[in-house]
Design goal:
Strand content: 25-35%
Number of strands: 24
Radius of gyration: 21 Å
Structural class: mainly beta
Order of helices and strands: HEHEEEEEEEEEEEEEEHEEHEEEEEEE
Shape: globular
Distance between the termini: 21 Å
Number of helices: 4
Length: 446
């Protein structure tokens, strides 16, 4: 998982990618020994996050930030998981906070029941069957205010409303819908965000140092530095489907995963596409240095019985040495981990596919490889949908030791969509879905 991770037994290292021996062997065998026997993988532990009122959690970090949490408990920390160094300890990150959708006059409105909620970096410790919060860092602006999770731009993001969808809320150009997280050697954090989409550099104490956004975004009024350093093609991201996954390669470069295909040339093309994008970013150069076309498997392969291609998403990417990643392809019900190599020959940065006038677009190609687009090869490591005990909506994956993964799910703060999410007193009717950390033991390499 990380050079800081430790295990009860000594971990044997392989010359292959610097990986632990058994996991390295398993990855080499991916697509053969591990492509079918996912039943050999098994859940060895599940730890559940305890219940903490969201208001109490938020106000302990930023006093007075939440006046009414509407009965919502802390959740949503499953946007990603990253090893914190000590055995059983992880950094996680919340998303933008409790939110849902309610139809009013036939149109869906995006609700924010706790608009004062501030996305946070949350450190947890797994002890037996319990996951407990041992530290939390609020995300703040240059002046020390909460960034909040509210949308940024009226022209680009969904309008925010109160819990009952009756009253409009204000946009906030500093707002972040945080997802992936990694920690750098200097103890600062890197996060990705869905609104921009953007890459966000955060100090060890939670202050936003720089937010990197697509060229041409024109975001003004944010209370921190905003730099247009990402390709402008990303302006075509699908609403609520910006960057979701983030990995840190051994040399310090970052890889960002776009959750879904771009809406190019329009929404219909994006919904039907199976091609999304990965981008490599150099913190030293403060620039994107490579881009890759990532090809999803058919939705019915990822999630048997599902026929809606738009349900495909990337939620997590994990560096496994060199230029290799584990990429999580998922729907809300199933997930599969693929091993992908990001070779120089697959780089499409700055080419025709970054020009939104190119027709057909990358997203419209039925078979990009057949059209000469270099598509990174991938191999199936494990089908989590076939492993008993793995929860739905797994959004974070971390390596624990030589043959074990830690998975975290997003429970959406216990919220559901629709007017029935709250009772007559405006209190949440909890979905009953809990935040869990699930350990999965992979088969030994053959």
């Amino acid at each position: 998982m990380s050079p800081h991770s430790t295990g009860r037994r000594r971990v044997r290292r392989s010359a292959v990618m610097g990986l632990p021996l058994t996991l390295a062997a398993a990855l080499v065998a991916a697509g053969t020994a591990m492509a079918t026997p996912s039943g050999d993988a098994r859940v060895i532990r599940t730890a559940t996050l305890g219940e903490t009122p969201l208001g109490a959690f938020s106000n302990a970090l930023l006093p007075g930030s939440v006046d009414d949490d509407h009965g919502v408990h802390l959740g949503g920390i499953g946007s990603d998981i990253y090893p914190a160094g000590r055995r059983g300890e992880y950094w996680t990150v919340t998303d933008r906070g409790p939110n849902g959708q309610i139809k009013v006059d036939g149109k869906k409105r995006r609700t924010f029941p706790v608009p004062g909620f501030d996305p946070a970096i949350v450190k947890i410790r797994v002890c037996g069957d319990t996951a407990e919060v041992i530290d939390a860092i609020p995300l703040t602006t240059s002046s020390g205010k909460a960034v909040t999770g509210l949308p940024n731009q009226k022209s680009r993001d969904e309008a925010p409303y109160t819990y009952d969808a009756m009253t409009a809320l204000s946009y906030n150009p500093s707002g972040l819908d945080t997802e992936g997280i990694v920690r750098a050697r200097d103890k600062s954090f890197w996060l990705v965000d869905e609104y921009g989409p953007s890459l966000v550099h955060v100090s060890a104490h939670g202050k936003v140092l720089t937010r990197y956004v697509p060229k041409g975004l024109g975001l003004t009024g944010a209370d921190y530095p905003v730099v247009e350093a990402l390709p402008s093609i990303l302006l075509h991201r699908k609403v609520n489907r910006g960057f979701e996954g983030l990995a840190q390669l051994p040399g310090g470069d970052l890889v960002m995963a776009l959750q879904s295909p771009l809406s190019l040339p329009d929404t219909e093309a994006g919904e039907a596409s199976r091609t999304t994008r990965l981008l490599r970013f150099s913190p030293r150069k403060k620039a994107v240095t490579a881009e890759y076309a990532y090809r999803f498997d058919p939705v019915g392969v990822v999630d048997p019985g599902e026929d809606d291609t738009s349900e495909l998403k990337i939620s997590s990417v994990v560096a496994v040495g060199g230029d290799r990643l584990l990429v999580e392809e998922r729907t809300d019900k199933a997930a599969r981990l693929q091993l992908v190599r990001l070779g120089h020959q697959a780089d499409i940065l700055g080419g025709p596919w970054d020009d939104d006038t190119t027709s057909p677009s990358l997203e419209q190609l039925d078979d990009p490889a057949a059209e000469g687009v270099p598509v990174p090869a991938k191999r199936l490591v494990v089908d989590l949908g076939k492993v008993s005990g793995v929860p739905g909506k797994v959004e974070g994956v971390a390596r624990v030791d030589d043959d074990t993964l830690a998975l975290v799910n997003d429970n959406d703060f216990g919220m559901t969509d629709g007017a029935g999410a709250f009772d007559a007193r405006g209190r949440l009717i909890d979905s009953g879905i809990k935040t869990t950390v699930t350990y999965v033991r992979l088969p030994e390499g053959r």
